[in-house]
Amino acid sequence: MHEENFPMIKMSDSKDIMRKAGASVGLIKDAAIKESALVNRRNEVQKNPELPFALLDLFDDHFKKIDEIFCNLGKIDNKREALLAVKDLSAEIVETPDLEKYLPKDVLPYFEHDASVFKRSVIVMFKNGLLEEIDSLLDQQDFDDEDVRGLQDIWAGIIKMWDAYRLIMEDLFLRLKGPDDVFDPTIDREKPVGRLFNTLHWLMNGHNNKKTGGILTGERHNGYALSGPDYTEKSEFKIDPELRSKADELKIAVPHGMVLSSSSNFLSNAVRKGIRSESGCVVSLEITHDNKNLVVSFSDNGKGIPDEEKTKIFLPTFTTKKNEPGGKGLAFADTRFEKAGGKIEVISPDEERGWSTTFKITIPFVNN
Fold first, then answer.
1. Please, what is the average pLDDT of the chain?
2. Contact (Cβ atoms closer than 8 angstroms) between residue 332 and residue 180
3. Which positions carry the signal peptide feature in this UniProt record (predicted)?
4. Do residues 65 and 105 share a domain?
């Protein structure tokens, strides 16, 4: 296996990406985006608000390159060279300053609420899982197929966490002008929805790590052995077969990060004590369409939402947690979806579909 099959993102690549985003030369000293180059990062973001999205794309390119290596690791003759390439790419990811440093102060609480757990999982699994295991294998004279499968299992866990983190950070960067705004509602309009579908699938069902990949590349999702999250009696993920078959072609008018962030909050609320059903929590996420729109419906069998709360649920001051400040998860979700071209509805009870509560997101298809 030749070195060119495992290219790192060089300094020149970083410059091209970041210059397209309007970044200054002072912010692109090297591909790792060193801390010393970020003294005036928030001022730079105000001048160049597309910069954070360029950084997400830069890191995502690293993940895609690592994913490609692990997809083919069993077939590669020179596995040692391949793992060294993974180490180089991984180091640039884990040594990079925190992306939340680009967020305005009034958006940082939303990071703590929605994104921090995914970020910690990615970094910990990289440092204490993948890189330690790679170092251990590189110290050996040789390694076998079982060693390869072990690395692929670790990578499968990292990559699913990364994709959730990436989309939620995208949603936070969309709020650069304020928590209630959508900086650029056209973000993701040119990206097919397949990767979003896979991430929503993982969010609802999880997997047992017996297969590698699957979120970055859609062809492997059917290999997962799925099981519901521990905190539910039953979790369902349903998708219209026509949508699944066209997932790599269909595009929607709303940024993907907004859909994942909202769905994640629907789930975390549904399983909370005081909201979930005492007889056993059942949740469902169903993806359908009405020809012109993608429809994402999250439903649960919990205690329902009183009429007087339905008009308050998207206010930043509203919370169902006693003696705690207002909730962050769904704050402004209704107005933000409207600004991006979609809408969100609260149906409680959902008598037509047989659920206590359903949150229904309707999103126009692009170029339909």
1. 80
2. yes
3. none
4. yes
